[in-house]
Each structure stands twice: as C-alpha cells, then as structure tokens.
Design goal:
This protein is of the alpha+beta class and about 120 residues long. The protein has 3 helices and 4 strands. The protein has helices at about 30-40, 65-85, 90-120, and strands at about 1-10, 20, 25-30, 50-55. Strands 3-2-1-4 form a 4-stranded mixed β-sheet.
Length: about 120
C-alpha cells in the first residue's frame, strides 16, 4: 500500500497550494485533490492502493503544535532545497520523514478514536 501525505505548501497564504508526497514522489496542485490526482498519475498499478493523509494544521493530542511547527519549518527548508536542486542535510531529511510518519500514526489514532466514539 502506498501512503500519501498532503500538506499545504504555504499555510495561511492567499496563494496556498498543496503538496502531495509518497516516498520520493511529489506533486502539487491548487487543492489537495489536484495534488493527489497529480501524484496518482505517477503511481504504477502495483502502487494503486493508497492511504491518503490530509494535514489540517490543527494541533491535537495525537500531533502537537510543536510537532506541526517543526514540520512546517522542515517543509519550508525542503522546498527551498528542492527549488535549488539540492537536498536537505541527512539529519533534517530523517527528522522530516519521522515527523511525516508521526503525523500518519496520529491520523490512524484519530481514526481509531473516531470509530470508538461511533461504536459507543
């Protein structure tokens, strides 16, 4: 299964676009849906089953404001590096990937909490 994270490129900006990331593949669009569609076009048949996480930028008990702020900082640095045909330093890339994984885990925990609330 392919995991896709969708993040706002410049949160709060009137010209915010969205970035979809799956491993080393990326795409962008004027909406989360456009970014997702552009990324899906890059996936092979074997990667067609996807789990999509859309970051809403609201802190909660699963992903804190501090984590969100650091993710935003690293995404800004990643975009700057990307635009300059460079890469983040390995330590920052690892931290970025860990934060994306943490947000994915938080999304799963949010879903679990939602389902538990529906069953009660």
């Amino acid at each position: 299964m392919t995991t896709i994270a969708i993040l706002p490129d410049n949160p709060g900006s009137p010209t915010t676009t969205y970035l979809a990331v799956a491993g080393k593949m990326t795409s962008s669009g004027q909406s989360a849906g456009q970014a997702l569609d552009a990324l899906n076009a890059q996936l092979s048949e074997a990667e067609a089953a996807t789990l999509v996480v859309v970051q809403h930028l609201r802190p909660d008990r699963f992903f804190t404001a501090d984590q969100q702020q650091r993710l935003e900082e690293l995404m800004t640095r990643w975009r700057t590096a990307r635009d300059g045909n460079a890469a983040l330093p390995a330590e920052e890339q690892a931290e970025l990937e860990a934060l994306i994984a943490a947000e994915l885990a938080a999304s799963a925990e949010r879903t679990k909490a939602l389902l538990e609330g529906l069953v009660k």
